[in-house]
């Protein structure tokens, strides 16, 4: 599986997420012992499967291209699943005068060329308007089948909220704290701004109780993982997550009731991806 987080190559269980070379060596292929590992489902990022900006192939990419023993495995690959396939365009293409954010997405055809001709390639996305579908189609075989189902769910709705004053007026975000406050009934909100102020709007006994959290790339990986786990856990303390776009695409939140995009997202893809974080686990309205 290739996704914004990872290549899914199904042969048979078990699965293996490739996060560093030791996992690759222990579970997929040991180049020292020339031993094939037990993993049959490989999950990797596009960067692990292509050449880096410095001109070097990663370990998994090298195995696929240059290792005769591993190429015997490659011949058995029956399916390649590409998750968040819109990233081929949104992250893999230069846009608006800026270079591609993750250019490895544009190199998928080079990878697919190393797999057997009969390997099926599946691309998945909730946001494939015509111009993005055209880019994705370049990765697929010419006779691909397009299956379309609506991304609208009957238990969700879109709404706009007119801000008072400026977008950075903190009082605009107080509507996300339930009044009167009841921790058991406080809905999970995924917003994009101003955690400190929302924390100050809580009753005194709940302030600093980790009900409201910041989330952005400048924080440590350990902190981000703890906050994410607390937010998705039905019994976790975090009910309001003030996040950047890192939590807006491809994240399966089971319990978010309200998503607020503060200010206008840059593209309709961003709008739909952010809205797609809400009410994913039930038909609750």
TrEMBL record:
Q: Which residues form the Helicase C-terminal domain?
A: 166-285
The keyword DNA-binding belongs to this UniProt entry's keyword annotation: yes
Record-level Gene Ontology MF annotations: 3'-5' DNA helicase activity; DNA binding; four-way junction helicase activity
Q: What is its EC number?
A: 5.6.2.4
Q: Name one GO cellular component term.
A: chromosome
Out of the domains of life, which is the source?
Eukaryota
Report what the protein is called. DNA 3'-5' helicase
Q: Mind telling me which PANTHER family this protein's record contains? A: ATP-DEPENDENT DNA HELICASE Q1 (PTHR13710:SF105), DNA HELICASE RECQ FAMILY MEMBER (PTHR13710)
Signal sequence interval, chain numbering: none
Species of origin reads Gymnopilus dilepis
Q: Where do the TM regions start and end? A: none
Q: Does the keyword Oxidoreductase apply?
A: no
Q: Which Pfam families does its entry note?
A: Helicase_C
Q: Which reaction does it catalyse?
A: Couples ATP hydrolysis with the unwinding of duplex DNA by translocating in the 3'-5' direction
UniProt GO BP: double-strand break repair via homologous recombination
Q: Which family does it belong to?
A: Belongs to the helicase family. RecQ subfamily.
Q: Which UniProt keywords apply?
A: DNA-binding, Isomerase
